[in-house]
């Protein structure tokens, strides 16, 4: 510990969040936590937290704040950042500086209560009150991707959903009007937490086509398949439990498991999916609570676990009694090659919890997914879901059931496959046309993504900025990894941008790659080190 003006301070580092706690005689009296990925400037984060502590009375009048230099060193920021924070606090008459006394807290603002007596009025220091779970989920990545995906001035390869073309809007309007006319307000009432029974019957029929025999009681309808991951984590995972994931893996799943305090252990993948031999060697040392996998068109890599490894994974699960969460949002979206059976279709002993969604085929905003599992597991999902959101929206469930029964869904599926196949072809052509040495990629047989490896000499962080300057965004590889592998990867979605912009977007992205590489070469060239200042 470092002594600072009679204050002791500890550094904090948690999931990208940094900060410091200042203590006197063992009691925490001042805590500053910085989220460097937040859109709020760092100096405002410092100002707001000190201001809140003053208004709340945690920092009393006369309290001596750390010097600008000391606080900047502790927080790992520029001194000017702390200087700006202190400047704002001085402008609000909350702190003052005096020669020899340093920077001290002044009297907090007051108001008058009903007895005309001065009373402190403090704004709640919300960020100071966050629990450990909230601090573990400070990454705003999903909302940022959705925000940029809807901007008209940006070519987005980041989001994993479909371009807004050929949506069955007319069918949606016809179905909704007809159902409302026939059933009226019945469609607008509360629904079963487990899901609208006719829709579960239709999903049961859909599962039959995927090789999964299940009755409606083994199905729960959810608000998208991501809720399936969240509820699985809540039901099965306690802090410290081990969860096996693929490396790389779906970033939202990683965030969810982290939020419940899981210890996440990654297993590398190759062109045939999860390396099962690596997994089995791990199991001699650890006892996982759950295995999470996307075996078909894995997100982000697009790989497909081959049939041999699927059977081997199930054998391992049976041997060590480990449940498997199979995430299958992309399984229907195959553009070449042959379909493989899902893990759930191969499972003979009920070890697999199968999650899927309509979001990658129908309207993503409708937010309807489902889980197939053993009945006792479904009962736990029902209990967990009713505490989260009671039930999935009733109107959407009725419409989706109508789509399944009237064949709108299956027609839409074929349209999506055709559209995505064409978008995939256009991205392949563009990547070939604007090819850069050491920029590696492999066309996926299905799904929505290209997983691309950047040249080794490139700075991935600088490339993000350079691409954004050209109005092109993508998903950086580091968000799909836990830090055990290099981050020289990017994920490109070929389904989300309009077809006419794919070639232009790839061209601009490759320009950004070239410019970033050139900057790195200049930075490390012998000539750069020999440049003398002009006097």
What does this structure look like?
It is a single chain. This protein is an alpha+beta fold. The chain has 3 domains: 2-135, Winged helix-like DNA-binding domain superfamily/Winged helix DNA-binding domain (Arc Repressor Mutant, subunit A); 141-161 and 411-525, Aspartate Aminotransferase, domain 1; 169-410, Type I PLP-dependent aspartate aminotransferase-like (Major domain) (Aspartate Aminotransferase, domain 2). Helix content is 41%, strand content 18%. An 8-stranded mixed beta sheet has the order 10-17-16-15-14-11-12-13, with helices on both faces. Strands 1-2-3-4 form a 4-stranded antiparallel beta sheet. Helix 2 packs across helix 3 (79-91) and helix 8 (225-236) packs across helix 13.
Throw out a few tags for this protein:
535 residues; alpha+beta; Arc Repressor Mutant, subunit A; Aspartate Aminotransferase, domain 1; Aspartate Aminotransferase, domain 2; 3 domains; eight-stranded mixed β-sheet; 18 helices; 41% helix; disordered N terminus; disordered C terminus
Task: Note the topology.
Elements (H helix, E strand, L loop, with lengths): L1 E3 L2 E8 L2 E8 L2 E9 L6 H15 L11 H8 L3 H13 L3 E4 L3 E4 L4 E3 L5 E3 L11 H4 L5 H9 L5 E2 L12 H15 L13 H13 L9 E4 L2 H12 L5 E6 L3 H9 L3 E8 L2 E2 L1 H7 L7 E4 L13 H14 L3 E4 L15 H4 L5 E6 L11 E4 L2 H14 L5 H13 L1 H26 L6 E2 L7 E5 L6 H10 L2 E2 L1 E2 L12 E5 L5 H26 L1 H5 L5
Parallel strand pairs: 9-20, 11-12, 11-14, 14-15, 15-16
Antiparallel strand pairs: 1-2, 2-3, 3-4, 5-6, 7-8, 10-17, 12-13, 16-17, 18-19, 19-22, 21-22
């Amino acid at each position: 510990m470092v002594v600072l003006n009679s204050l002791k301070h500890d550094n904090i580092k948690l999931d990208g969040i940094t900060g410091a706690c200042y203590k006197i005689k063992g009691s925490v009296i001042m805590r500053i936590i910085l989220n460097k990925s937040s859109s709020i400037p760092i100096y405002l984060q410092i100002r707001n937290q000190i201001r809140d502590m003053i208004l709340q009375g945690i920092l009393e009048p006369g309290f001596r704040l750390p010097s600008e230099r000391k606080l900047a060193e502790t927080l790992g920021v520029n001194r000017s950042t702390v200087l700006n924070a202190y400047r704002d606090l001085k402008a609000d008459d909350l702190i003052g500086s005096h020669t020899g006394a340093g920077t001290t807290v002044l009297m907090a603002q007051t108001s008058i209560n009903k007895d005309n007596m001065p009373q402190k009025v403090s704004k709640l220091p919300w960020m100071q009150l966050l629990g450990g779970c909230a601090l573990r989920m400070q990454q705003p990545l999903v909302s940022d991707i959705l925000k940029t995906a809807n901007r008209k001035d940006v070519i987005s390869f980041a989001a994993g959903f479909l371009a807004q073309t050929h949506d069955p809007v007319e069918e949606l309007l016809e179905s909704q009007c007809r159902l409302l006319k026939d059933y009226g307000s019945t469609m607008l009432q509360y629904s079963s937490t487990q899901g609208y029974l006719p829709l579960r019957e239709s999903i049961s029929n859909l599962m039959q086509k995927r090789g999964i025999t299940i009755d409606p009681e083994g199905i729960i309808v959810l608000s998208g398949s991501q809720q399936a991951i969240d509820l699985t984590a809540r039901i099965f995972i306690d802090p410290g439990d081990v969860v096996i994931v693929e490396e790389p893996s779906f970033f939202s799943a990683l965030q969810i498991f982290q939020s419940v305090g899981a210890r996440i252990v990654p297993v590398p993948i190759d062109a045939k999916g999860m390396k099962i031999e690596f997994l089995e060697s791990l199991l001699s040392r650890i006892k996982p609570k759950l295995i999470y996998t996307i075996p078909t068109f894995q997100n982000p890599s697009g790989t497909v676990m081959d049939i041999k490894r699927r059977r081997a994974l199930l054998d391992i699960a049976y041997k060590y009694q480990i449940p498997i969460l199979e995430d299958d949002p992309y399984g229907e979206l195959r553009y070449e090659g042959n379909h493989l059976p899902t893990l759930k279709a191969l499972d003979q002993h009920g070890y697999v919890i199968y999650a899927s969604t309509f979001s990658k085929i129908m309207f993503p905003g409708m937010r309807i997914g489902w889980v197939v599992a053993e009945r006792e597991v479904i009962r736990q999902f029902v209990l967990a879901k009713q505490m989260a959101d009671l039930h999935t929206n009733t109107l959407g469930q009725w419409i989706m059931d109508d789509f399944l029964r009237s064949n709108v869904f299956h027609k839409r599926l074929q349209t999506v496959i055709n559209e995505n196949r064409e978008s995939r072809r256009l991205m392949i052509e563009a990547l070939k046309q604007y090819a850069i040495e050491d920029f590696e990629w492999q066309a996926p047989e299905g799904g929505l993504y290209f997983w691309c490896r950047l040249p080794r000499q490139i700075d991935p962080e600088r490339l993000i900025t350079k691409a954004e300057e050209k109005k092109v965004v993508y998903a950086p590889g580091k968000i799909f990894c836990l830090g055990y592998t290099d981050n020289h990867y990017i994920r490109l979605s070929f389904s989300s941008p309009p077809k006419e912009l794919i070639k232009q977007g790839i061209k601009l992205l490759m320009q950004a790659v070239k410019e970033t590489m050139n900057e790195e070469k200049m930075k490390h060239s012998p000539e750069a080190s020999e440049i003398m200042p002009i006097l």
